[in-house]
Amino acid sequence: MELGECIARRRTANGHFLPQPISLEHQHRIMHAASRAPSHLNSQPWRFVLITDETLRGQVSAIAGRSMERLMAEGVFFGRYRRYFRFTRQEMDERRDGIFIDKMPAPLRPFIRHVFTSSGQKIVNSLNVPRTLGRDNEKLVGESPLLLAALLTREEYQAGEMSGVYSMLGLGMAIENIWLTATDLGMGIQFISAPGEFGETWADLREVLSVPDSLELVALFRLGYLPPDQKRPTIDWASRHRKRLSQFVFRNTCATAEPDDPRAGWEGDPDQDVTQS
Question: Which of 35, 58, 262, 274 has a CA 20 to 30 Å removed from the CA of 91?
């Protein structure tokens, strides 16, 4: 796959993966790709844990499931991230960012705009939506053949210092290398983000993965080969849109927006392949 095509096809996979294990060759290819990322003074501050053991994956998935249930039941997700939700295609076309909520359980569809409010939270809880999403998330994570933990060495990751900024930038570029390589190999990848919303569940993950004090656990992902016909989760969204040049690029100074390029097509067709973002 050409680099430009790989970048354009990069997605976040929201659905289930094929049950087949990720080959050791492919596991090592994504790790070698990560190692080629730039880092401050070639410090290479990243560390990764490849999690294939079924018992460990089960422990991680249980933490992810109960974190998702709590996140939804307590309204943390809706309150913290409300500014990213879009409810109409027109709004999505204008803003060209955030997520377009286009798939909801049937009982919630008439209340879609109210779901993300304090009063709507009562409806969500009464219909056991948090529990449903928690079980869905636990299953998604547990059935993923490969989990990947991304860490930074505390020696380099000094919060409040430039070394901390450089280290986080380096890890971000390493993860992008992983993402693009996974795309090239026909694999999907998704953040396992819910446990990170609560300090205690993140601490539970550190314990399960035996993370030493010398390392900072930064992110967790699930990976697997993509099925040809991927089913969408219970609640899902489309996020293929990307901002136009005039919405995020300036020329020379921040006072002059870059004109839109009429030939641009990097954002792809937002009406296609809504199962991934």
Answer: 262
